[in-house]
Amino acid sequence: MNRTFLVAPALLFPLCSFARADIVEVHQQGFDFFPQEVTVSLGDTVRFIWHNGDHTVTEGTDGTLDGSEAFHSLLTATVPVFDVVFDQAMLTNFPRPGNRYDYQCLPHVFLGMDGVVTVVEGPGTSFCSCDGSGTAPPCSNAGQAGRGCANSISSLGARLISEGNDSVGADDLAFHADSLLFSQPALLFSGNNAINGGNGVTFGDGLRCAGQNVRRLGVAVPDSLGRAQWGPGLGAGGGWSSGDTRNFQGWYRDPQFSPCGSGFNLTNGVAVTFTP
């Protein structure tokens, strides 16, 4: 019942900066939460949005409410929006293995109305959102703040976030993307510069955010939920040193029904400054 979106032509490239924290929307659709699984950065807010019926958003998997839940709320016509902030206080006060927070709708858990939020803790700053706050989307296909432009399966756009840390010696930096297209290749690349002051320039169905001395860091094939991962162990291919700033971005195929007809799109950018 998983239905998550919580992602080429040859690559020859060269910070309206966003705060690290973003809002990730999860919509109630009938007896489903959509996307059913999302991965968020530490400090992000997950916003649950009601559309019809009477539901709850209750952390846990056992179909009960006993007061030990990290979060719980009705999701109804009178409570149409419920925000949960996954900050350090949440992780400290309600620790869960792997920072994985399962949740359910209590009245409809027997129908499989449940979901998962996984929190990753990574360095860097998100930039080059395709929400219209900077460079205009190429064909009015704006995405959500902190994401790339809308694609053929997600009006939110694909999102790139980091995990691990910025230590060159540790070399455990990794990246996750969501809302990509199942089985369509996705390339992670880095560049020395944030293009157009971090606002990006139109490129295909998206915005090209990173350029100059571009390094290709690997191609991943998204899973059935539209998720892809690169790293750790990216340092050898990236060639960065302590004190360097690199701008990372994902470029992915959208071959059949891409909004602008180019057949490819991009995520937001993530800028990371490395330490020893």
Name the overall outline: globular
CATH topology description of the largest domain: Immunoglobulin-like
Q: Helicity level, as a percent range? A: under 10%
The value of Rg in angstroms is: 19 Å
**Percent of residues in beta strands?**
35-45%
> Helix-strand pattern, N to C?
EEEEEEEHEEEEEEEEEEEEHEE
What top-tier CATH class of the largest domain fits best?
Answer: Mainly Beta
For the biggest sheet, the summary is: 5 strands, mixed
Strand adjacency order, main sheet? 3-9-8-5-6
How many helices? The count is 2
- Helix-strand category: mainly beta
The CATH architecture of the largest domain? Sandwich
What is the number of independent domains? 2
Tell me, rounded to a whole number, the average pLDDT: 91
Extract low-pLDDT stretches.
Answer: 1-20
CATH superfamily of the largest domain: Immunoglobulins
Characterization of the model:
Strands 3-9-8-5-6 form a 5-stranded mixed β-sheet, with no helix packed on it. It has a 5-stranded antiparallel β-sheet with strand order 10-21-20-13-18, with no helix packed on it. Strands 2-1-4-7 form a 4-stranded mixed β-sheet, with no helix packed on it. It is globular. The protein is 4% helix and 37% strand. It has helices at 88-93, 235-238; strands at residues 23-29, 32-34, 37-41, 45-49, 55-59, 72-75, 81-85, 100-104, 114-120, 125-127, 159-163, 174-178, 186-191, 193-194, 201-203, 206-208, 210-211, 215-220, 228-230, 245-253, 264-273. With 276 residues, the chain is mainly beta. The chain folds into 2 domains: 23-120, Immunoglobulin-like (Sandwich), CATH 2.60.40; 125-273, Immunoglobulin-like. It is built from 2 helices and 21 strands.
